[in-house]
Specification:
Elements lengths: L3 E6 L2 H4 L18 H23 L26 H4 L2 H10 L7 H12 L18 H15 L1 H7 L2 H13 L11 H14 L10 H12 L21 H17 L4 H17 L25 H8 L7 H17 L3 E2 L4 E2 L38 H4 L6 H4 L2 E5 L4 E6 L4 E6 L7 H7 L3 E3 L19 E4 L6 E2 L1 E10 L2 E10 L2 E12 L2 E11 L7 E9 L8 H4 L7 E8 L3 E10 L3 E11 L3 E11 L5 H12 L5
Antiparallel strand pairs: 1-15, 2-3, 4-5, 5-6, 6-7, 8-9, 8-14, 10-11, 11-12, 12-13, 13-18, 14-17, 15-18, 16-17
Helix pairs in contact: 2-14, 4-5, 4-6, 6-7, 6-9, 9-10, 9-11, 11-12, 11-13
Amino acid sequence: MIRRQFLSLMPAAALAQRGKKKDAKNEPPPPPPPGERVRQAFFEIVRGYIEAARRTSPTMAVVEYPGATVTKSFLAKSGLSATGVTRMLPALAAWTASGRQPDLGAREALIAAFRNGTDPDSADYWLPSPADRQNQRQVEASIVAWSLWTARDTVLAALNQRERKNVAAWLASCCRVPVRNNNWAWFTAVVQAVCRRLGEKFPEFEFDEKWMLDDLRALDAMAAGDSGWYNDGLKGAAFDYYNSWVFASHFLYWNELAGSFYPEFRDRFSERLKNYLEIAPYFFANHGGHVLYGRSLIYRWAAVTPLVLAWRQGLWPHSPGLLRRIVERNILWQWDIGAFDAAAGKLRESYTRNGTRDVCESYIDGGHPYWGMQAFAFWLIPDGDPFWTAPEEPLPVEKSDYAIAIPEAGLLVRGARISGQVTLYNAKSTKTEPHYRDKYNKLAYNSHFPFAVNHEPGRPTLDNLVLLRDPATGERACRGPVEESSVEAERVELVYEIRLHSVTARVRTEIRWRGDFEVRSHFVTASGEGLEKLEILEGGVPYTDRPVDLNLAAMQAFYPEVHLKVWNLRGWKGARTEEQDGSVWYGRHKVQVAWAPLAPKMSLATLRYTSPKAVPKDKVEEEAQRFAALYRG
């Protein structure tokens, strides 16, 4: 039998649903189809934006939402924020260029932003990017340029020669300081590609080919083999969703504009993109959300932007029905759990109504969530296209279990068909700064039980981590850089150190799985003065007793019977449930924690069952005993 059962949770909220009979008289009417719901969500976002922009300034070149954070990274001459304007432009441009109705005020907003934001005489002039340092304007310039290209027939026709020169001059100011040690190189590469094409008709737009090619060479050097993943920087390891919402999306912008003129770069980047897109659908859970991991998560559905762009360019390697299911479900899932604050008419800076603001980084302001509006490029897809007409197809996790290793990026993505959840293991990327730490350094990230985060030094969150803790002070420490790692279809292994006070623990962790079960083994060697005063912990997923409370109607189908359980296979002293703050979804939450006094040599292992859609309890016990028999010792 299993050596020791530690903790078990089956919330009453889930059990209460058993045996309930539906009352047909009180049944609400069925919701509109997903496509219509996406359209209505888009309308709400646009209406909220238009109203806020008009309230902020008659120029509509700046926007500040009620209660929104304002940073100093991109302020207009007036001191008002421009980030929310530039990040809405791609969606407004796609809607306008498609000729869709109603107009929603998109045409007026587009023209006003370009006319007034780039006019040095305007009170809300966006100001040029500095000539002596990198600046947020360089980031925004990429989508300003892309939006100008997308809606060129509308915007450029409305601007006179002086106004076109203003736009060209502002874009040119963003290409004076090269930034080629991370994803920023794509931003100026796209600006140059737009200027190349617009310059064919409007000489105000000047193209610097050498600049663009230098950008492309730098980006090419960031590729992790042919995997389709890029290391976002030249030092260490940084693999995250920037692979989607910059490396993939901005390549596709560049490709539409300039790929045919530079076939060597086009083919090289396209082949990598194909490999990335082959795996991309496996990151989406049955509810449509992607596994939350890494930084800038408040960009939300920006994760689907390159999927849509790839379809438009004939580079999507899967069916149109699968693509539409991913896109619609991803947008609606995040909408349903609280992406939009209807009262304030804005996208939230927290992931949900109750989720922690610490999901954001220091650079995030009220306009930053609108980076996700690039995903609405699908409005450019004609109505009769198979994207709109083909029958939807199930997501990969709805069809079978899978475990896909991406060794170049140190990632493994795993899906469990029985529960529809997806887990992402990270065995390479590391961030030690407090506002990044919890977003990268955990053992696993789960689609149905998203991680917890805070920005406090010495207080990493407990979930899905091995930690050292000083019981006297509460101070904690988690891993530093990964020294060795291996990701394979049946296991993940990584070696790292944890340092707290003068104590260093060297840990080799191995994780194996079967369905909703997971075995975590840790082999620990510790040394240093005061070792005996510390404890070692392993946390499970963050949870609440009623996860469906975010939105019962939307979530109940994906959380019909939550069941969490942990067993001691070897080495742990005990287990407890600890309450914490900082869940990305819930704020206040609980974690099932295994613990033991730290010792010089330790061999530890737990078996964990984590399911939002549990099988009967007797089946859980039977399977647990079979699985655990392989690893107890």
